[in-house]
Amino acid sequence: MQADIKNLSEEEIFAEVLKLIAPFNKKNIAITRDTSFSSDLDLDSLAVMDLLAAIEDHYDITVPLNILPDLERLGQVSAAVQKIIQG
User: Within its chain, how far is the Cα of 67 from the centroid?
Assistant: First the structure.
């Protein structure tokens, strides 16, 4: 993993997550940290897994399966990604 990736702020990660979620935002709603995958974006579990795979590929990380139930909102995802890349 590149050293500069470890120094990304949660805000920078959230900005990247916004770019990665754009193709999944079929309702074209304004995305915030409190945007929910299910109730706001109407993403099914397969779409959420596809998004997660895109995030994992982008950061070259693996999101542990045991934390997935805690990732309902986009802000939770960017915070989790930051925690993972910082080790």
Answer: 12
From CA 24, how far away is CA 59, in angstroms rounded?
A: 18
* Full-model pTM: 0.88
Could you tell me which residues come within 8 angstroms of residue 47 by beta carbon, excluding any fewer than 6 positions away?
A: 24, 37
For the chain, the distance separating the N- and C-terminal CA atoms, rounded to the nearest angstrom, is 11
- Per DSSP, the chain holds a count of helices (H) and strands (E) of 4, 0
Dihedrals phi, psi of 36, to nearest 5 degrees: -95, 140
Q: Decide: 8 and 60 in contact? Cβ < 8 Å.
A: no
Of the candidates 76, 6, 62, the one whose C-alpha atom is nearest the C-alpha of residue 34 is: 76
What pLDDT tens digit does each residue of the chain (87 aa) get? Answer: 455 888 999 999 999 999 999 999 999 999 999 999 999 999 999 999 999 999 999 999 999 999 988 999 999 999 999 999 998
